[in-house]
Amino acid sequence: MKAREWGVLLVLSGAIFLEGIDIAMLNIALPAIRTDLGLSTGALQWVVSAYVLGYGGFMLLGGRAADILGRRRVFLAALVVFLLFSGLGGLAEHGATLIAARFVTGLAAAFMTPAGLSIITTGFEEGPKRDRALMVYGAIGAGGFTLGMVIGGLLTALDWRWVFFMPVGLSLVLLVAAALLIPKAARPERDGRRFDLLGGLTITAAVVLLVLGVERASHVGLEWTAGTVAASLVLFGLFWAVERRHPAPLVRLGVLRSAPLLRANLIGMLFMAGFFGFQFLVVLYLQELRGWSTIEASLAMLVLGIDVVLAPTLTPKLVRRFGNAPVLLAGLGFAALSYALFLSAGPDASYLELLPSLVSTGLAFTLAYGPLTIIATNGIDESEQGLAGGLLYTSFQFGAAIGLAGVAAVNVAATASGEPEALLDGYRAAMLVPLAAAVTAVAIGAFNLRRKATALQPELAGV
């Protein structure tokens, strides 16, 4: 790749890194935020839920907006909004202000992330060059998820507001670099047909309600959850009917007939469900049961960041030799191994006893994230690359919501008291949720492997 191409790639990878650390840092700063702002448990939950709703709910609309309005234009505008509302979150003195800021920040990420990914998938020709770019992009993005807790713990030890101010500084650097390096492109041609506004409204409302129903399931009654999910399914049905009849649909339904894309999205959902559930339980185990400080817990998770080094160096070589499907399957296997190993953690387990589980999680991200991104975007027409990115990251976010809701519900149900033995039993019972997600993903990945000759793109060459 030329120097300018590397510059564009690093800017866009920096944006996905920014999105990853923003989510992870907030999770570890929540106790400090609760203490400082005096938030109830319900209000604190909405600090997380607001971002999830903005991000997961508007991702498909954001991806299609990039295809229609111009990817560079949407990326830069979303990055500006992300910068401003991250700063507002850091300045918040009331819970309502923080919740509103997190919703808009998530909405901005919903437009920024698929736009950035589609700039890569359309700016780098399909084949070895694009695959190498996506490997680097995936490695840096995965590093945001895994290193975010470490960085967040260190910043929270200073002041939780730095968890919001640090992304402001990084966003500003990325904004200047993106404006200088990302080449301008002609605005996509319109054929005169009206924009699919009804499709955009129905799919956004459907995804928002579905994510809300899943994410709030452990905090509200069954009737409320069932009603929310049912309303979401009705809106999905309406969206399907609208798209079949619209002359310029927001989502061309034919793209959903791509078997590799559908399997990649399902695996992505399960992978993120397992990881976010695992991450949540590990933090509770270290801080609530073991009494570790925020900094100690963050440093313990530092080993997860091995993917930052290994993903751009080791994974391309493995993919070049074995292909996408086997490497992805190996990554999913390491995820299942990690969660199974953590089940044996006792109330006095040493860090060395916990280390194999944490290393396996880092290896899972090393091997899975890049190949998964490639499979989800290869073979999709250039005019729909933003949509493909939106589908993948919607799956990621929905998976995260499912994983967190699942482990929270099981943990609460399995913990009868606050005694250490009861806490440990609750963590072990809840860890079965990530384990089940990972095992299911392994099964789907194995199916991919068996059918790779016809269902998956060819193996990489010259990555």
Automatic annotation (TrEMBL):
Membrane spanning stretches: 7-30, 42-62, 74-92, 98-122, 134-156, 162-183, 195-212, 224-242, 262-286, 292-310, 322-342, 354-375, 387-409, 429-449
SUPFAM superfamilies named among the record's database cross-references: MFS general substrate transporter
As for subcellular location, the record says: Cell membrane
Which top-rank group of organisms is this from? Answer: Bacteria
Recorded topology in the membrane? Multi-pass membrane protein
Q: Does the keyword Transmembrane apply?
A: yes
Q: What residue stretches are annotated with the Major facilitator superfamily (MFS) profile domain?
A: 8-454
Q: Which UniProt keywords apply?
A: Cell membrane, Membrane, Transmembrane, Transmembrane helix, Transport
Q: Which InterPro entries match?
A: MFS (IPR011701), MFS_dom (IPR020846), MFS_trans_sf (IPR036259), Sugar_transporter_CS (IPR005829)
User: What PANTHER family is this protein classified in?
Assistant: BLR6921 PROTEIN, MAJOR FACILITATOR SUPERFAMILY MULTIDRUG TRANSPORTER MFSC
Q: This chain belongs to which protein, by name?
A: MFS transporter
